[in-house]
Design a protein that fits this description.
alpha/beta, 2 domains, 7 helices, 7-stranded mixed β-sheet, FAD/NAD(P)-binding domain
């Protein structure tokens, strides 16, 4: 690829696709690069808070946004790959974007890589990963039909994961280090109405126990529950937050905060001219698919204005 793109969008999730749709509408020669088509939302069983769609799966939402972006096929191209480096000779030159062994040139960048699951770093985690330790209820909940499982975490995501697990498991514990879970009211109500779900609050998991043949058999807690600091389980799911995938942007000189999130302004601009960012990788405090796509739209418009000035 020797052509110069008006914009290279790094990240093929809903934010990336939404950005590409707007970039295509504005006639920008656009390349979307991502390792996982659809991003992490494809692991979400039900999406009910994206305007215009009362209820659909994360995969369906990603597919719809991708399809919309590709309506502008004369301008939008999607490529599977991992961006490993972004360089620029000076503030007036184009960006060089390394994708494996290939390098493409771009007048502007929209960085929308999202985040990855924060791991529970306790003894037994690595040993029983995918042998009873999981990060996706939609992916692996089916294997625990009629069994006892727990999810570590107290966010809205953790509660939604617990609700998915309750469709399969006999019993679902939510183990949370604080007093009250922090779910959206509608999901909190669903949790409270689900008799299979029980919250163990003010408690941390300090060790994951298991058997080489059977996998996970239980966890050790830092507070007693029903007179014991051990809880017997068949599986453990983890939802304790996410880590922004901002390393490549940081190496390129983009300013990040103490949490590793890219700092942006209300126009989705970073500290580098022509370099925009959007979605779960940025420093906005409320992260949803709709807010990420909105930031991506602002970034696309910023890219449009920037390229017209070049």
């Amino acid at each position: 690829m020797n052509d110069i793109y008006d914009v290279v969008i790094i990240g093929a999730g809903v934010t990336g696709y939404g950005t590409a749709m707007y970039a295509g509408r504005m006639g920008l020669k656009t390349l979307v690069v991502g390792e996982t088509a659809g991003g992490t939302i494809i692991l979400t069983d039900t999406v009910e808070n994206y305007p215009g769609f009362k209820k659909l799966t994360g995969q369906e939402l990603a597919d719809k946004l991708k399809e919309h972006a590709l309506d502008y096929k004369d301008f939008v191209e999607i490529k599977e790959g991992r961006v490993t480096k972004i360089t620029r000779e000076n503030e007036n030159s184009v960006f060089n974007v390394s994708i494996g062994d290939e390098t493409v040139k771009a007048k502007t960048i929209v960085y929308a890589t999202g985040s990855k699951h924060r791991e529970l770093r306790v003894p037994g985690h690595d040993e029983y990963m995918n042998k009873g330790v999981h990060y996706c209820a939609l992916c692996d909940g089916f294997f625990y039909r009629g069994k006892i499982v727990a999810i570590v975490g107290g966010s809205d995501s953790a509660v939604k994961e617990a609700l998915v697990l309750a469709e399969h498991a006999e019993k679902v514990y939510i183990i949370y280090r604080k007093e009250n879970v922090r779910a959206e009211p509608v999901n909190l109500k669903r949790m409270n109405n689900q008799s299979k779900i029980e919250v163990i609050n003010n408690t941390n998991v300090t060790e994951i126990k298991g058997d080489i043949e059977k996998g996970v058999t239980g966890v050790v807690l830092d507070n007693d529950y029903n007179g014991s600091n051990e809880l017997q389980l068949d599986g453990l799911f983890i939802a304790i937050g996410h880590i922004p995938l901002s390393d490549v942007a940081k190496e390129a000189g983009v300013e990040i905060n103490e949490r590793g999130e890219i700092k942006i302004n209300r126009k989705a601009e970073t500290n580098i001219a022509g370099f925009f960012a959007a979605g779960d990788v940025v420093d906005t405090h409320f992260k949803q698919a709709i807010t990420g796509v909105a930031e991506g739209v602002l970034a696309a418009y910023g890219a449009y204005e920037y390229t017209k000035k070049m």
